[in-house]
Amino acid sequence: MKISYECGPCFLRQAREALDLSTDDEKLKMEIIGDIFEYLSDNFKCGVNSNSTGSTIHKLIKQKTDCKDPYFREKIESNFLALKYLDDVKKILDDDCLENYVKIAIIGNILDFGAFTLDDDIESVIKKSLKKDLAIKDIDEFENSLKKHDKVLYLVDNTGEIVFDKLLLSKIKEYTIDITIAVKSQPILNDACMKEALDAGLDEFGEIVEIGCGTVGYVDSEISDEFREIFNAHEFIISKGMGNYEGLTEIDLSTKDVYFLLCAKCNTISRDIGVNLHDMLLFKNR
Fold it and tell me: What is the mean pLDDT of the chain?
């Protein structure tokens, strides 16, 4: 997906957050934010890929601060907190229909586990979201793909969220389909890497593979040759989150059944898809 004017403030917000997590050196922060201003001045233009731009900014921060994983503590805490709620979420899922499992996976995308504490009423948030209709609901097509294919590639998104993915993964297993779960190879934001996926127990549901890079979302030019073979070998793909949507819409998916599960959390994404802000979505590539 291409950047919009609203991506500019978002890049800077993320950069400030990553800098604060990476170093306490105020002089270094000034130097780096100046470098980011310079980079954006040269590269923030219509037609530029949003994921590549964000990835470059975070790579610069990691190189300059020598902090390889700014979100290390936040990722551990997010998984821990989500696992604490998992049993309660299972109880809330009193209706065993596929759509509710899809909603739970999307609710995981909505919840910012780094911002929650054990004292927060997360249960009410989940119950309210379960009652909310999906703004786009290609659930019948999704189930047909589960029945038609013998394997699926599942692109995960954030830590914390991946714990809720476990419920949908368990439902998918009922269709006797082999699951390959794709994670980032290097840390980026609070995205799940191999360690976080293993800590969350995703290996119970299928083989976990790395995409060969640590980019914001999916960036086709950065994935490894090994992962490209895996990607090309799958006709059925489940994509979680906005970052993967932004990247996958840049490539030809016409020969594949690709389903996007996400909450439209920014205006740029909402406009691109044609939905309202905060809508919950399950839709197939057209």
Answer: 92
Q: Quick one: 169 and 189 in the same domain?
A: yes
Mean pLDDT across the stretch 36-65? 96
Question: 141-172, pLDDT tens digit by residue?
Answer: 999 999 999 999 999 999 999 999 999 999 99
Task: Identify the domain containing residue 83 by its residue range.
Answer: 72-284
The CA-based angle 109-111-112, given to 5 degrees, is 105
Where is the domain boundary, 33, 49, 65?
65
CA 54, distance to chain mean position in Å, is 14
Q: What is the domain count for the chain?
A: 2
57 and 84 in a single domain? The answer is no
- Measured CA to CA in angstroms, residue 187 lies from 14, 96, 167, 260 at distances of 15, 35, 24, 23
Q: Which of 21, 40, 65 is the last residue of a domain?
A: 65
Rounded Cα distance, 175 and 154, in Å: 15
pTM score > 0.90 for this model?
yes
